[in-house]
Amino acid sequence: MTFFKARGMNIVLEIEGLSDHPAFAEIKDIASNAVQMFEDGVYDELFIHYIHHINSISNELRNVQLLPLTEFHEAGEENEHDMTVYEFEPSEQEILEVLLPQYVESLIFGALLDAKAAEHAARMTAMRSATDNASDLISDLSLQYNRARQAAITQEITEIVGGAAALE
């Protein structure tokens, strides 16, 4: 959040404290609120920024525009690949009113799950590194301890042999 505030971006809504295992019901309320705020004109664009999990050592930042939809062409617009004309029952507007919130909900939920997977992978990698570093440190300290103990034993043996030689 501080990233966006530092760059002077207008933040309309901030949500924190989602669980590590989010349920779709949690996201449904957030997405419904976001779509309603878009429809009410609180903002004219809705983006989601999240970390996309690629693999256990690689992630990438994603910036996806959720609203308005830009990937679809307007009704009546010709696309060179379209050869079919569709008729909608009920109307296209009524279908979009139902599908648009569901579409945005699924995009937000998918992004959240992806970000959580990236977070868990980063934690797993960090814990593996910490474990490896601790193992290396234990090995080094054990070696130092054994060398110091061996030196102390050698010193005692030398003193005993020296004392015995002095008595002869």
Uncertain regions spanning at least 5 consecutive residues: none
| Number of DSSP helical runs | 3
- As laid out across the biggest beta sheet, the strand order is 1-2
Largest sheet: 2 strands, antiparallel
What string, H for helix and E for strand, traces the elements in order? HHEEH
Q: What CATH architecture would you give?
A: 3-Layer(aba) Sandwich
Q: Please give the alpha-carbon distance between the first and last residues.
A: 83 Å
The CATH topology label is: Pyruvate Kinase, Chain: A, domain 1
Helix content: 55-70%
- Count of distinct structural domains: 1
Give me the secondary-structure category. Answer: mainly alpha
Question: What's the count of strands?
Answer: 2
Briefly, what CATH class? Alpha Beta
Cα-atom radius of gyration: 32 Å
Which properties best describe this structure?
168 residues, mainly alpha, two-stranded antiparallel sheet, 12% strand
Quick overview:
The chain is mostly helical and 168 residues long. It has helices at residues 2-6, 24-39, 92-167; strands at 46-55, 58-67.
